[in-house]
Amino acid sequence: MIEVINISKSFEDILAVDHVSVTMRENTVFGLIGTNGAGKSTVLRMVAGVLKADEGTITVDGFPVFDNIEAKARIFFIADEPYFFANANGAEMERYYASIYKGFRRDDFSDYMDKFGLDKKRKINTFPKE
Question: Which end of the chain is more exposed for a tag (fewer CB within 10 A), N or C?
Answer without folding.
Answer: C
